[in-house]
Protein backbone atom coordinates (compact mmCIF):
# COMPACT_ATOMS: atom_id res chain seq x y z
CA UNK A 1 0.00 0.00 0.00
CA UNK A 2 2.84 2.36 0.78
CA UNK A 3 4.43 1.61 -2.61
CA UNK A 4 1.14 2.33 -4.38
CA UNK A 5 0.86 5.68 -2.57
CA UNK A 6 4.44 6.55 -3.56
CA UNK A 7 3.78 5.71 -7.22
CA UNK A 8 0.58 7.77 -7.29
CA UNK A 9 2.44 10.69 -5.67
CA UNK A 10 5.20 10.54 -8.28
CA UNK A 11 2.64 10.46 -11.08
CA UNK A 12 0.95 13.56 -9.68
CA UNK A 13 4.29 15.37 -9.50
CA UNK A 14 5.15 14.33 -13.08
CA UNK A 15 1.81 15.56 -14.39
CA UNK A 16 2.24 18.86 -12.52
CA UNK A 17 5.73 19.34 -13.95
CA UNK A 18 4.50 18.54 -17.49
CA UNK A 19 1.61 21.00 -17.12
CA UNK A 20 3.98 23.68 -15.86
CA UNK A 21 6.24 23.03 -18.82
CA UNK A 22 3.33 23.49 -21.24
CA UNK A 23 2.33 26.73 -19.55
CA UNK A 24 5.88 28.00 -19.70
CA UNK A 25 6.11 26.97 -23.34
CA UNK A 26 3.00 28.93 -24.24
CA UNK A 27 4.26 31.96 -22.35
CA UNK A 28 7.47 32.17 -24.42
CA UNK A 29 7.05 34.41 -27.50
CA UNK A 30 7.65 32.87 -30.92
CA UNK A 31 11.07 33.51 -32.40
CA UNK A 32 10.98 36.52 -34.69
CA UNK A 33 12.26 35.82 -38.21
CA UNK A 34 15.42 37.56 -39.32
CA UNK A 35 14.89 39.88 -42.28
CA UNK A 36 16.90 41.79 -44.85
CA UNK A 37 15.47 44.98 -46.36
CA UNK A 38 16.06 46.53 -49.77
CA UNK A 39 14.59 49.29 -51.93
CA UNK A 40 13.64 48.75 -55.56
CA UNK A 41 12.49 51.17 -58.27
CA UNK A 42 10.86 51.00 -61.68
CA UNK A 43 9.46 53.57 -64.10
CA UNK A 44 7.85 53.72 -67.52
CA UNK A 45 7.23 56.60 -69.90
CA UNK A 46 4.00 56.70 -71.86
CA UNK A 47 1.98 58.89 -74.20
CA UNK A 48 -1.34 59.69 -72.45
CA UNK A 49 -4.53 58.60 -74.20
CA UNK A 50 -7.03 60.24 -71.82
CA UNK A 51 -7.36 63.61 -70.05
CA UNK A 52 -9.42 64.68 -67.04
CA UNK A 53 -10.59 68.29 -66.72
CA UNK A 54 -12.29 69.90 -63.73
CA UNK A 55 -14.36 72.95 -64.65
CA UNK A 56 -17.65 74.61 -63.78
CA UNK A 57 -19.69 77.73 -63.06
CA UNK A 58 -19.73 80.19 -60.17
CA UNK A 59 -22.58 82.69 -59.79
CA UNK A 60 -23.32 85.48 -57.27
CA UNK A 61 -26.66 87.10 -56.47
CA UNK A 62 -28.33 89.01 -53.61
CA UNK A 63 -30.77 86.14 -53.02
CA UNK A 64 -29.83 82.47 -52.77
CA UNK A 65 -32.67 81.42 -55.09
CA UNK A 66 -31.41 83.82 -57.77
CA UNK A 67 -27.82 82.58 -57.42
CA UNK A 68 -29.00 78.96 -57.78
CA UNK A 69 -31.20 79.76 -60.76
CA UNK A 70 -28.44 81.65 -62.56
CA UNK A 71 -26.00 78.85 -61.84
CA UNK A 72 -28.38 76.18 -63.12
CA UNK A 73 -29.00 78.12 -66.35
CA UNK A 74 -25.29 78.71 -66.96
CA UNK A 75 -24.31 75.15 -66.05
CA UNK A 76 -26.87 73.66 -68.43
CA UNK A 77 -25.44 75.82 -71.22
CA UNK A 78 -21.90 74.66 -70.37
CA UNK A 79 -22.91 70.98 -70.34
CA UNK A 80 -24.63 71.37 -73.71
CA UNK A 81 -21.50 73.02 -75.13
CA UNK A 82 -19.25 70.26 -73.76
CA UNK A 83 -21.38 67.57 -75.38
CA UNK A 84 -21.42 69.49 -78.65
CA UNK A 85 -17.60 69.62 -78.47
CA UNK A 86 -17.42 65.83 -78.33
CA UNK A 87 -17.68 64.95 -74.63
CA UNK A 88 -19.90 61.92 -73.98
CA UNK A 89 -22.61 62.19 -71.32
CA UNK A 90 -21.19 59.18 -69.46
CA UNK A 91 -17.81 60.96 -69.24
CA UNK A 92 -19.22 63.90 -67.27
CA UNK A 93 -19.50 63.64 -63.47
CA UNK A 94 -20.34 66.27 -60.86
CA UNK A 95 -17.29 66.84 -58.65
CA UNK A 96 -18.52 69.60 -56.31
CA UNK A 97 -21.53 71.79 -55.51
CA UNK A 98 -21.39 74.61 -52.95
CA UNK A 99 -23.83 77.25 -51.72
CA UNK A 100 -22.16 79.92 -49.56
CA UNK A 101 -23.17 83.30 -48.19
CA UNK A 102 -20.91 86.23 -49.09
CA UNK A 103 -19.79 88.77 -46.49
CA UNK A 104 -18.12 92.18 -46.60
CA UNK A 105 -15.45 92.64 -43.91
CA UNK A 106 -14.12 96.05 -45.05
CA UNK A 107 -15.82 97.93 -42.19
CA UNK A 108 -14.38 95.61 -39.58
CA UNK A 109 -17.69 93.83 -39.22
CA UNK A 110 -19.18 90.97 -41.21
CA UNK A 111 -21.97 92.32 -43.40
CA UNK A 112 -23.94 89.86 -45.62
CA UNK A 113 -23.73 90.89 -49.28
CA UNK A 114 -25.42 87.99 -51.05
CA UNK A 115 -24.93 84.39 -52.04
CA UNK A 116 -22.50 82.37 -54.15
CA UNK A 117 -23.21 79.05 -55.85
CA UNK A 118 -20.43 76.93 -57.37
CA UNK A 119 -20.96 73.81 -59.46
CA UNK A 120 -18.07 71.87 -61.03
CA UNK A 121 -17.80 68.71 -63.10
CA UNK A 122 -14.94 66.40 -63.99
CA UNK A 123 -14.90 65.33 -67.61
CA UNK A 124 -12.93 62.65 -69.42
CA UNK A 125 -11.83 63.31 -73.01
CA UNK A 126 -9.13 62.41 -75.49
CA UNK A 127 -6.05 64.65 -75.16
CA UNK A 128 -6.53 66.16 -78.61
CA UNK A 129 -9.94 67.52 -77.55
CA UNK A 130 -8.74 69.38 -74.45
CA UNK A 131 -8.24 72.80 -76.08
CA UNK A 132 -11.58 72.64 -77.90
CA UNK A 133 -13.41 71.59 -74.73
CA UNK A 134 -11.89 74.42 -72.67
CA UNK A 135 -12.77 76.89 -75.42
CA UNK A 136 -16.35 75.62 -75.71
CA UNK A 137 -16.90 75.62 -71.96
CA UNK A 138 -15.50 79.12 -71.54
CA UNK A 139 -17.66 80.57 -74.31
CA UNK A 140 -20.75 78.89 -72.82
CA UNK A 141 -20.21 80.50 -69.41
CA UNK A 142 -17.76 78.32 -67.48
CA UNK A 143 -15.67 80.49 -65.17
CA UNK A 144 -14.05 77.81 -62.98
CA UNK A 145 -11.13 75.87 -64.46
CA UNK A 146 -9.39 73.92 -61.70
CA UNK A 147 -7.06 71.35 -63.21
CA UNK A 148 -6.13 69.06 -66.09
CA UNK A 149 -4.47 65.66 -65.74
CA UNK A 150 -3.21 63.32 -68.45
CA UNK A 151 -3.27 59.58 -67.92
CA UNK A 152 -3.41 56.14 -69.52
CA UNK A 153 -6.61 54.11 -69.80
CA UNK A 154 -4.64 50.95 -68.88
CA UNK A 155 -3.03 52.52 -65.82
CA UNK A 156 -3.71 49.50 -63.56
CA UNK A 157 -2.00 47.18 -66.03
CA UNK A 158 1.01 49.52 -66.11
CA UNK A 159 1.11 49.67 -62.30
CA UNK A 160 1.02 45.88 -61.99
CA UNK A 161 3.98 45.54 -64.35
CA UNK A 162 5.96 48.28 -62.60
CA UNK A 163 5.31 46.75 -59.19
CA UNK A 164 6.63 43.41 -60.41
CA UNK A 165 9.75 45.04 -61.84
CA UNK A 166 10.37 47.12 -58.68
CA UNK A 167 10.11 44.08 -56.40
CA UNK A 168 12.48 42.16 -58.69
CA UNK A 169 14.90 45.10 -58.46
CA UNK A 170 14.68 45.03 -54.65
CA UNK A 171 15.22 41.25 -54.60
CA UNK A 172 18.34 41.60 -56.74
CA UNK A 173 19.75 44.21 -54.35
CA UNK A 174 18.95 42.04 -51.33
CA UNK A 175 20.68 39.05 -52.94
CA UNK A 176 23.71 41.24 -53.57
CA UNK A 177 24.05 41.93 -49.85
CA UNK A 178 24.16 38.17 -49.16
CA UNK A 179 27.09 37.42 -51.46
CA UNK A 180 29.81 35.57 -49.59
CA UNK A 181 27.44 34.34 -46.86
CA UNK A 182 25.59 31.07 -46.37
CA UNK A 183 22.21 32.78 -46.03
CA UNK A 184 19.44 32.50 -48.60
CA UNK A 185 16.53 34.84 -49.29
CA UNK A 186 13.07 33.70 -48.17
CA UNK A 187 9.53 34.99 -48.58
CA UNK A 188 8.50 38.65 -48.52
CA UNK A 189 7.63 39.75 -44.99
CA UNK A 190 6.51 43.33 -45.74
CA UNK A 191 6.31 45.70 -48.69
CA UNK A 192 5.54 49.44 -48.95
CA UNK A 193 5.07 51.20 -52.30
CA UNK A 194 5.36 54.91 -53.12
CA UNK A 195 3.93 55.98 -56.51
CA UNK A 196 4.72 59.08 -58.56
CA UNK A 197 2.96 60.47 -61.65
CA UNK A 198 1.29 61.24 -63.90
CA UNK A 199 1.33 65.03 -63.78
CA UNK A 200 -1.51 67.44 -63.07
CA UNK A 201 -1.78 70.98 -64.47
CA UNK A 202 -3.46 73.41 -62.06
CA UNK A 203 -5.13 76.64 -63.12
CA UNK A 204 -3.41 79.89 -62.28
CA UNK A 205 -4.97 83.16 -61.16
CA UNK A 206 -6.62 83.63 -64.58
CA UNK A 207 -7.75 80.03 -64.86
CA UNK A 208 -7.57 77.93 -68.00
CA UNK A 209 -10.28 79.72 -69.94
CA UNK A 210 -9.98 80.79 -73.58
CA UNK A 211 -7.86 83.89 -74.11
CA UNK A 212 -8.51 86.80 -76.43
CA UNK A 213 -6.07 85.25 -78.91
CA UNK A 214 -8.13 82.06 -79.17
CA UNK A 215 -7.96 78.59 -77.65
CA UNK A 216 -5.18 77.80 -75.22
CA UNK A 217 -2.84 75.17 -76.70
CA UNK A 218 -2.56 72.01 -74.60
CA UNK A 219 -0.06 69.22 -75.29
CA UNK A 220 -0.22 65.87 -73.50
CA UNK A 221 3.43 65.13 -74.31
CA UNK A 222 5.13 62.12 -72.71
CA UNK A 223 4.45 61.30 -69.08
CA UNK A 224 6.19 59.08 -66.55
CA UNK A 225 4.73 56.67 -64.00
CA UNK A 226 7.19 55.43 -61.37
CA UNK A 227 7.20 53.44 -58.16
CA UNK A 228 9.65 52.93 -55.31
CA UNK A 229 9.17 49.92 -53.03
CA UNK A 230 10.68 49.06 -49.66
CA UNK A 231 10.71 45.29 -49.30
CA UNK A 232 11.63 43.12 -46.30
CA UNK A 233 12.61 39.51 -47.09
CA UNK A 234 12.90 36.67 -44.61
CA UNK A 235 16.49 35.61 -44.11
CA UNK A 236 17.07 31.85 -44.02
State which percent range the strand residues make up: 35-45%
Please state the overall shape, judged from the principal axes of the Cα atoms: elongated
**For the largest beta sheet, what order do the strands appear in spatially?**
3-4-2-5-7
CATH architecture of one domain: 2-Layer Sandwich
CATH superfamily of one domain: Protein of unknown function (DUF541), domain 2
Note the run of SSEs as H and E: HEEHEEHEHEEE
Low-confidence stretches: 2-19, 21-25
CATH class descriptor of one domain: Alpha Beta
The secondary-structure class comes to alpha+beta
Kindly report the CATH topology of one domain.
Alpha-Beta Plaits
Q: How would you characterize this protein structure?
A:
The chain has helices at 2-27, 64-84, 130-140, 155-177, and strands at residues 35-46, 50-61, 92-104, 111-125, 144-151, 185-196, 200-202, 223-235. It is α+β, with helices and mostly antiparallel strands. The strands form two sheets. A five-stranded antiparallel sheet has the order 3-4-2-5-7. A three-stranded antiparallel sheet has the order 1-8-6. β3 and β4 (111-125) form a beta hairpin. The protein is elongated, with a radius of gyration of 33 Å.
Amino acid sequence: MKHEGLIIGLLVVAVAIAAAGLVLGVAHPARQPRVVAATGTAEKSFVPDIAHLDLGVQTDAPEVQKAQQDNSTAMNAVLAALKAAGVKAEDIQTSSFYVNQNFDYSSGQSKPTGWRVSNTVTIRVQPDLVSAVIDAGSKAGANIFNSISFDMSNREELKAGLMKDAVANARAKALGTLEGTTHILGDIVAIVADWSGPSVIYAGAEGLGASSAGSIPMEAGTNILSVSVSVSFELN
